[in-house]
């Protein structure tokens, strides 16, 4: 996951030299969260979300952002009526 400028999924999967010191604000003070589920350096799934200004980790909106991004990144398995889960 990355709290910074928009990034592609494969870009998120490459090793980073060092994590950022703190989340980065985007225009207007909003916070953007980009996330990728990787296999090696290739993104299998990607998603992003953002939240308005004045966000702190204890903020319920921040928790909803992280929860929503996580659910989008790891969707439930699809169900195929003929063969079960796929």
Structure description:
It contains two helices and four strands. With 86 residues, it is of the alpha+beta class. It has one domain. The protein is flat and about 50 Å long. Helix content is 22%, strand content 27%.
Order of helices and strands: HEEHEE
Mean pLDDT: 75
What order do the strands of the largest sheet run in, or round the barrel if closed?
1-2
What is the general shape?
flat
Total of domains: 1
Proportion of β residues?
25-35%
Helix fraction? 10-25%
Largest sheet: 2 strands, antiparallel
How many helices? The count is 2
Structural class: alpha+beta
Précis, in short:
This protein is of the alpha+beta class and 86 residues long. The chain has one domain (9-76).
Please give a handful of descriptors for the protein shown:
86 residues; alpha+beta; two-stranded antiparallel sheet; 2 helices; 4 strands; flat
Secondary structure layout plus pairing:
Elements: H1 9-13, E1 31-39, E2 42-51, H2 60-73, E3 79-80, E4 84-85
Antiparallel strand pairs: 1-2, 3-4
């Amino acid at each position: 996951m990355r709290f910074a400028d928009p990034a592609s999924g494969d870009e998120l999967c490459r090793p980073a030299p060092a994590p950022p010191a703190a989340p980065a604000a985007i225009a207007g003070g909003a916070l953007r969260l980009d996330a990728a589920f990787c296999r090696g350096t290739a993104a299998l799934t990607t998603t992003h979300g953002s939240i308005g200004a004045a966000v702190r980790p204890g903020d319920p909106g921040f928790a909803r952002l992280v929860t929503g991004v996580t659910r989008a990144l790891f969707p439930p398995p699809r169900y195929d009526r003929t063969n079960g889960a796929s």
